[in-house]
């Protein structure tokens, strides 16, 4: 079933751009740009104008999408998520470690089910967190913004940062880039491994804290492979504490020391970059709250 989604904005104090450049800057898919043109559903100050018409400071822009299918349905779990940020298009929650991002078949205890409980309708998945990873998870509240956010992921406009706890005894540089391809582990379908025929995977890290028990690393991803951080850190001899798959010293009842603490993105159909942190306190507070 198709629904109408309307977005209104005022062009900010920026250099003039054409109508066509505006749609491309918003990362609107080519098919949707075609609809907006043929159906005259992109208006400037209440009028449909040619694609080469220049938009200037203060101009009012109205975009209406009526070709967006919405047939997604998730059962409500009955549990409320911890909401960190929310606007008319986006919701970001703090997903606990041990919870899946999305359900299979008749499951109803995942993060998506919790958000369905909170919203009263089904959200739309944009990215995932491993089941054992806790922290910030972004979902869309309507399908019209999903392709824009997906394109932000592919163009690296959408950034994610993590904290990882590794052993104090790991002998690693204070900062480095891990550039090792990752593929499926042929001996265990749950696992990934570094292999020369794997997919390109790049992880940047910086040691930001050391104590008698562990080192705390800030991780920035340049790619987003399954288990990328866990595989890369294990490959350099610094497996994450509490990792049952990649840490040979894993102990029962340990929690995985991996937290998604920061998300940065451009709000859909806007020029505003939004940075969301797990907490808004000091760096130390963020670390403690994310890895307790």
Give the H and E element order.
EEHHEEEEEEHEEHEEEEEEHEEH
From the helix content, strand content and strand pairing, which structural class follows? alpha+beta
Average predicted local confidence, pLDDT: 93
* Counted beta strands: 18
Domain count: 3
How far apart, in Å, are the first and last alpha carbons?
44 Å
Low-confidence spans: pLDDT under 50, at least 5 residues?
280-292
CATH class (first level) name of the largest domain: Alpha Beta
Give me the CATH fold name of the largest domain.
Pseudouridine synthase
Strand content: 25-35%
Task: Round the Cα radius of gyration to an integer and report it.
Answer: 21 Å
Overall description:
The protein has 292 residues and is of the alpha+beta class. The chain folds into 3 domains: 2-68, RNA-binding S4 domain (Structural Genomics Hypothetical 15.5 Kd Protein In mrcA-pckA Intergenic Region, Chain A, Roll), CATH 3.10.290; 83-155 and 274-290, Pseudouridine synthase (2-Layer Sandwich); 159-256, Pseudouridine synthase, CATH 3.30.2350. The chain has helices at residues 19-25, 30-38, 111-119, 146-154, 228-235, 283-290, and strands at 2-10, 17-18, 42-44, 47-48, 54-55, 60-69, 83-86, 90-95, 124-125, 134-140, 159-167, 175-179, 182-184, 192-194, 202-210, 214-221, 258-266, 273-277. Strands 7, 8, 9, 10, 11, 12, 15, 16, 17 and 18 form a 10-stranded mixed beta sheet that branches. The chain has a 4-stranded antiparallel beta sheet with strand order 1-6-3-4. The longest helix has 9 residues, at 30-38. The radius of gyration is 21 Å and the shape is globular. Mean pLDDT is 93; it is low at 280-292.
